Amino acid sequence: MYILGYKDVNDRKYYAPVIVQAFGFIPFKINLLVDTGASRTQMSWNDAQYAGGFIIRLLPADNSSYTGIGGSVRGYILEQTTLTFKSSAGKYDITIGNLSVSDYETTDGRPCPFTASMLGMDLLSRFDLLFEDTYVMLRM
Amino acid sequence: MATTLEEKLDEVDNEVKWLHANYNELINKHNQEFVAIKNEGIIEHAKELESLKVKLEGKGIKTSDVLIEFIRDKRNQVN
What we know:
Order of helices and strands of chain A: EEEEHEEEEHEE
Radius of gyration of chain A: 15 Å
Largest sheet of chain B: 3 strands, antiparallel
Oligomer: heterodimer
Shape of chain B: globular
Helix content of chain B: 40-55%
Radius of gyration of chain B: 13 Å
Number of strands of chain A: 10
Largest interface: A-B, 41 and 36 residues
Number of strands of chain B: 3
Number of helices of chain B: 3
Order of helices and strands of chain B: HHEEHE
Distance between the termini of chain A: 6 Å
Largest sheet of chain A: 10 strands, mixed
Structural class of chain B: alpha+beta
Strand content of chain A: over 45%
Strand order of the largest sheet of chain B: 2-1-3
Number of helices of chain A: 2
């Protein structure tokens, strides 16, 4: 069984399509950067706001902050979350419970740039990864 | 509009594949804009996300039924 992600012609990185199902929300579409340099899977504030009516700061806070280039941001929680992928064997669900969502401002009030939601090693480690010229294959 | 999760999954797979294969062309046409993608094409676009949502609502389309992306040159972006 495998899942495919697709290579972007602009940044040359690989992205996997997914449906996000979470408590209280209609399932919505995003694409996740396949990021072997990220330890955790995380949704970016910009992808979160695309799900109509999604207001980040009404979510529970996860009582942690994430530090990256440009500063630290607060995290929020999307509860009871399942990520559904298209696989060679049909739909493939990964139930992750609480999904971290990054804030749109740093802790000192500066706006965060648009950034990709990340599929991190917490989930990628389930798969063997095969990177090809136009796609990546996540194999079980 | 997708009626099942499986249909929605097929849609998003096609939409993501199309998006990333055409990203540079999208920068030429829609740089620094929000676009709504469905069925391997842009169905709406706008400078502001709220404007995009209003346009989609005017067509009876839910944001959860489309793939929304902010188009920008990502080559210098740090993730």
